[in-house]
Design a protein that fits this description.
28% of the residues lie in helices and 31% in strands. The chain has 240 residues and is of the alpha/beta class. A five-stranded parallel beta sheet has the order 2-1-3-4-5, sandwiched between helices. The longest helix is centred in the middle third of the chain and has 14 residues, at 103-116. This is Two component transcriptional regulator, LytTR family.
Length: 240
């Protein structure tokens, strides 16, 4: 387990990262603060190994914080500004996350950190037995259906419903894309469009603005706002 802290001058940003950390088995949150001076103390008192750090903060900038930290912990920078990327990498940060940060991109950054710290990678974590299926409410009133995650070809949003496709069979579920996205294990599933969630192991290729899935003939579009997270996963497996 990696002890981590969150440092950001906006409580809302802290709340989002706290939620993400809670979904990541390799991480234990040992503190959070809007005060970078207090954060330097937390690194020592809580034996933090990883810091999620905002760059733009009063009193002490993220860059100055890293210099003051002097290598005592690994750092993942979180910011709404891209212009600090080059300088931050010169300071040997683990990764540089642009806000708004989505969970798949967060997990990709954590994978880099756990590798640096000698921990087991997030993506290699098998699903626990109790996590390899979900129960959903179907269009039939009062009916619950068990769906094995390994059987899911892809998921498509349809107004007030989502359609879960399995071996050519479509199951309509009364829920939102956001809700089902949060319930699925994010290292294995990724949202690639406002209307599509796909299982990462089924990806066979990318063609323009479409992702190809094993055994699926439907056109799965890649949304502009989701493409960076998808390509980050692809890059981890890419041979240059």
């Amino acid at each position: 387990m990696i002890n981590c802290i969150i440092v950001d001058d906006e409580q809302h940003a802290i709340d989002i990262l706290t939620h993400y950390v809670a979904q990541t088995p390799q991480l234990t949150l040992v503190g959070s603060t809007t005060n970078p001076i207090e954060a330097l103390q937390l690194v020592t008192t809580q034996k933090a190994e990883l810091v999620f750090l905002d760059i733009q903060m009063p009193e002490l900038s993220g860059i100055d914080f890293i210099k003051a930290l002097n290598g005592k912990a690994k750092v993942i920078l979180t910011t709404a500004y891209s212009e600090f990327a080059l300088e931050s990498y010169e300071l040997d940060v683990v990764d540089y996350l642009l806000k708004p940060i989505r969970l798949p991109r967060f997990l990709a950054a954590v994978q880099k950190a756990v590798k640096d710290l000698g921990e087991e990678e997030v993506a290699s974590q098998p699903l626990a037995a109790e996590d390899d299926y979900i129960f959903v409410k179907t269009e039939s009133k009062g009916k619950l259906l068990k769906i094995n995650l390994a059987d899911i070809d892809y998921i498509e949003g349809m107004k007030n419903y989502v359609a879960i496709y399995r071996a050519g069979q479509k199951t309509l579920v009364y829920t939102s894309m956001k809700e089902i996205e949060e319930r699925l294990p994010s290292p294995l599933f990724i949202r690639v469009h406002k209307s599509f969630i796909i299982p990462v192991p089924r990806i066979t290729g990318i063609e323009g603005n479409m992702v190809k899935l094993e055994g699926v003939t439907a056109e799965i579009l890649i949304g502009d706002s989701y493409k960076a997270d998808l390509m980050e996963i692809i890059r981890h497996k890419m041979i240059q």
